[in-house]
Amino acid sequence: MPLEPAGATPSAYAYPMLVKQLLHSARATAGGQEIVYRDRQRHSYRQFFERLNRLANALAGLGVGPGSTVAVMDWDSHRYLEAFFAVPMMGAVLQTVNVRLSPEQILYTLNHARADVLLVNAEFVPMLAIIKDQLETVKRFILISDDGATLGSFGIPYAGEYEALLAAASPDYDFPDFDENTRATTFYTTGTTGLPKGVYFSHRQLVLHTLAVATALGSAAGQGRVHRDDVYMPITPMFHVHAWGMPYLATMLGMKQVYPGRYSPDMLLKLIASEGVSFSHCVPTILHMLLADKAGADVDLSGCKMIIGGAAFPKGLAAAALARGMDVFSGYGMSETCPILTIAHVRSALPDVDAEAAERIRTGYPIPLVDLRTVDGDMLDVSRDGKATGEIVVRTPWLTQGYLHNPAASQDLWAGGYLHTGDIGAIDPRGMLTVTDRLKDVIKTGGEWVSSLELESIVSQHPAVTEVAVVGVKDDKWGERPLAMVVVKAGQAATADDIKAHVQRFADEGHISKFAVPDRVLFVDSLARTSVGKLNKKAMREQLAG
Amino acid sequence: MPLEPAGATPSAYAYPMLVKQLLHSARATAGGQEIVYRDRQRHSYRQFFERLNRLANALAGLGVGPGSTVAVMDWDSHRYLEAFFAVPMMGAVLQTVNVRLSPEQILYTLNHARADVLLVNAEFVPMLAIIKDQLETVKRFILISDDGATLGSFGIPYAGEYEALLAAASPDYDFPDFDENTRATTFYTTGTTGLPKGVYFSHRQLVLHTLAVATALGSAAGQGRVHRDDVYMPITPMFHVHAWGMPYLATMLGMKQVYPGRYSPDMLLKLIASEGVSFSHCVPTILHMLLADKAGADVDLSGCKMIIGGAAFPKGLAAAALARGMDVFSGYGMSETCPILTIAHVRSALPDVDAEAAERIRTGYPIPLVDLRTVDGDMLDVSRDGKATGEIVVRTPWLTQGYLHNPAASQDLWAGGYLHTGDIGAIDPRGMLTVTDRLKDVIKTGGEWVSSLELESIVSQHPAVTEVAVVGVKDDKWGERPLAMVVVKAGQAATADDIKAHVQRFADEGHISKFAVPDRVLFVDSLARTSVGKLNKKAMREQLAG
């Protein structure tokens, strides 16, 4: 017998899940709510809605329509938020350009994505000038400048300045309906190997990610609960996985939003204090920077909810944030996953701050609709006992359906019908996932697998250590051996033996294998990082091998 | 230029939004959580998941497969929850039968929906016996009985008893993927005129309703906030719009759930106390019954969140609930809308209990994805000034796409591409909707429209009044005139002049038109209600005219 179709009346509205539909409730209830840009501008949602119409008309005037690609190079701003909505709502694709890439990489991504129009902050114009003659598809440029001024045109034929174009455009625009599977956004992952790879998300995927993340964050019993009276500010760049999708969520819920421009600790802390920011997200490096800022040591961070992701969250850092009264907790995902898969909401009473920190650095519980497994090489589930590790593979409604124009990498990503995260993890009987390592960062020594992340977490708890990276180096006898690179806190000192003795205690107490104690400890001034601030272990390994 | 399609890798999983996908997060994290049935049974989610598999196998053994329709006649139970999931997850359609209809109406709905299998509580077997020979499509019957006993077969050829069939069935079942637009549920609206009309919802619609309602309830800043540590119990029947969809929501979030069987005040209050129920929903009549229950006067209801809907929420009743410490607030929707459209979360500090009650009885703010308008006869928006009234029309992703096998009524429902609620309302500048009346219950007197609901709310505030209904009666001079039917509280007394004087004060203070003061007040022992407990104004008008 065939499935029973839902059946529709001809005049019934077949509601497509489009980005524009996220605006209905905010439009009805939050017209007076504020959107703030640094200490420079603030306006209401009512004005925001009108600015979306003006931006769409301005872009349409430059030939943008369904199927066009509009690229943006800007720091986090109200303008970027406008592009998040207006560009996809026109049926065009928004390309969020990673401004921390090299000019050559940026050129590659703009050509590869076939961008038609580029919105560029004046700050990046000198860089753009280097590559402009090699742009294959970008024909029109819009200048973004906080004060309307430019540092010089550098030969870029601007169609106009952002605010001037909006002012000249009509405030009325009728965003059309179309297929919810239309591509809405694209951006490039910044792996440590090979060319950047493009991922892409449809309207349907963005809407479902927004709803599922809102459900997860809102349904917390207490800790880590996000609500519509929160004040939101991104501290993960908007070019990086749509700032984890949170601008869509904040707008849907009609929250007050604060956009900080280029990140600097003083501006971020100033905005947290002056605007009452209560909800944000960042990578561990940035949290470390905020907590270490001397001028901002007096800023009240208590109650500020902050999701930490993008890299392993060291326990020492979590403890330092908890000591400032912050509500920090991990989120897990990646560019390919839109990104949120799990959230580490604390679900039961914990005995002390140490236990709290230990729980909050774990990777988290799967949010609604996430089908998350840890599997062996045959795609069979490993035990959910909190000990057995396997590759984390997932299905959700918001995963990139491939890499742009890259069928081979797409096939690998989706081998066996599940998206392969390339991460190794363990799931405990409560459903809590802990990522133990990147598949490629596991250290294989004497037939055992040692987690570089676990070792980093242990070393970070030494009182003199401020940052640490552990990598495997080739060893004739053992295959690989762990090596720790350590940055010591200003005014503190430690020897390699101090660090080894510290790690040895964890081995003696049975927390880690005795094979995990590093043979070598190198003291360095800083750690190699990728363009988005993650530890660049490939570069470290190459440096050590060379 | 064509729209850019999302583009999929052949092996990528095109995640369909199916009811089964709501189970992922609970399956991962809530295996030990409890599901309770009255004082008779309790089991874990882990057992629940296994029971879904067993039910599917038992039904498959009776020939149920994709496209089949499985009807259920039961009070609210763990079994009903199992049918909510297992039946649609097989690709079959769940028909939730309104057991309060007459045998003739039930016969009509079973034949009209072409039900194949019927699960029937022993309590309804005598009624079933009356109609069994006229059933056109139902061929198999499963007996539901709390103690496995039957009151006699009444000639029904049972395939077996529910628990026995589950015990005999395999605990393994692989629920398939299929098109998310497949019909998942159907049930019949109980209008006061004509034959029952069938509405129907797809998997996609149920999933989106669940996510959007969870987002709305979770994002409240404080008042009315639902979270995963709540204990849920329905007090709106599961046959009525899936108990407002809350069993899906509670299961997705892994909440403890309590099912009360047939509603009686003593059992409901006992379960609230013994199981710690903190989240429910009901119609005003039931809330009134709970608050009026003498034996339950000592039950601590403080902090219990309760959404009130299905009928106008009298202010006096809200005040009485607030005085018991309950967190009562309105929700708005109807059978055709799955049902939730708005939630009356209080968004700002209110000066006193009176103002609180006034806010909480209002209809509420649209939840995410809801495009809700108040329009005139030409489908043009009326002003959102809180005063202008128009018909409430909506678009959301979870509206019935028509009435089953009824194209004419479907066309009326969806005239102009919006679903017509048949309700009259006003939207204020904050986005708060207030339903002022049913389109057909507005009293037209002397060229003015008087809201019967507003009058009922005023009369209900008279200290001697426990229930009231206001209807329009024909009048040669004015067209219609309002008439109030009043039930007086036990041990209290009031005259028609008392009531009229009470209403006159509201007219003198400018709250209502002087034309709204009723000419006649009738004192009655009880008010005519429909099968789902709503005031039956059609019956009242006929009675008064006859």
Automatic annotation (TrEMBL), chains A, B:
Residues 26-404 form the AMP-dependent synthetase/ligase domain. Pfam families: AMP-binding (PF00501), AMP-binding_C (PF13193). One of its GO terms (molecular function) is ligase activity, forming carbon-sulfur bonds. Keywords: Ligase. Residues 454-534 form the AMP-binding enzyme C-terminal domain. Gene3D superfamilies: 3.30.300.30, N-terminal domain of ligase-like (3.40.50.12780). Belongs to the ATP-dependent AMP-binding enzyme family. This is AMP-binding protein.
